[in-house]
Design goal:
Helix content is about 80%, strand content about 0%. With about 100 residues, it is mainly α. Helix 2 (about 30-65) packs antiparallel against helix 3.
Amino acid sequence: MTKFVPALVVACALLLFASPATAQAAGNTLIELSGAFGAGLVVIGAALGIGKLAAAALESMARQPEVAGNIQVAMIIAAALIEGFTFFALYICMTQNPFAAP
């Protein structure tokens, strides 16, 4: 738990210092920051997912080297699907603003 404290402090500091920098924008900066926060969560989730996928694939290849080719193909397909969903979620986080004027 203590290894996440420095990252949390840096994230809080960035959020505090980002609002004066974005104060010149005409829109609501809280809504814009929520989109950036959502995009950050998406990227963190994708990184964790691909990391677990690669770890499990490498472990299974080490246990059964004779099926390493099949495992590698399945891993690449699953990683591509995760990345595709990540790009879609990033697009939604960055373009959708439910409080914007029509």
